[in-house]
Design a protein that fits this description.
Blueprint lengths: L1 E4 L2 E3 L5 E7 L8 E7 L6 E6 L6 E3 L7 E6 L4 E6 L8 E9 L2 E4 L3 E5 L2
Parallel strand pairs: 2-11
Antiparallel strand pairs: 1-3, 3-8, 4-5, 4-9, 5-6, 7-8, 9-10, 9-11
Length: 114
């Protein structure tokens, strides 16, 4: 029900916009987030936005470079990524959660390399 897109190979300092389209979900009420998992590391939360008050969270490592947003009319979640660093290389997953129910997208690979 979630399909992520927008990953790819980008040079350090570059930008990407990740998208996550939701089908059969009314994202208005969901907490949404982006997570990432780098090779050999655990999955970590990158950024989240609350479904109740639209408050946002950013991991310290991405503050000032990443921006999360959603378009409820299009049922799509976005993650704008600027000033990419090699350490941002990971599979990025989108997530939508409400109560005890959570949906995960299949992930999209972002590789930052020159």
């Amino acid at each position: 029900q979630l399909q992520a897109s927008g990953g790819g190979l980008v040079q350090p300092g570059g930008s990407l916009t990740l998208g996550c389209a939701a089908s059969e979900l009314n994202l208005n009420r969901y907490d949404i987030g982006w997570f990432r998992q780098a090779p050999g590391k655990e999955r970590e939360a990158v950024s989240c936005i609350s479904g109740s008050d639209s408050s946002t969270y950013y991991a310290d490592s991405v503050k000032g470079r990443f921006a999360i947003s959603r378009d409820n009319a299009k049922s799509t979640i976005y993650l704008q990524i600027d000033s990419l660093k090699p350490e941002d290389t990971a599979v990025y997953y989108c997530n939508a959660a409400i109560g005890t129910v959570a949906y995960w997208g299949p992930g999209t690979l972002v590789t930052v390399s020159s």
